[in-house]
Amino acid sequence: MIRVTIPHHLRTLAGTGAEVVLDVTEPVTSSSVLDALEVTYPVLRGTIRDHVTLEKRPFLRFFVCMEDWSHEPPDKPLPEAVATGADPFMIIGAIAGG
Fold it and tell me: Binning pLDDT at 50, 70 and 90, where does residue 98 land?
């Protein structure tokens, strides 16, 4: 079981709480977590990743074990703490401006 936290606007869209629990098949990667999230909550398809390229949308960040994984390869295996559900895979809305 993988724990995933999602930003407020996406949890409102999906009708969930701040954290969801997903079954993810091995290997546990950012891509496989997002695949499982989109299968479980189809309304989120296209909101986190582009429909065609599957690239992360701008202004969203991924955090894993307190580290920014937004620019890591999507098929890079996630740390054991995330793969076992001890730590969440965090999707965070980025803030821009200045």
Answer: low
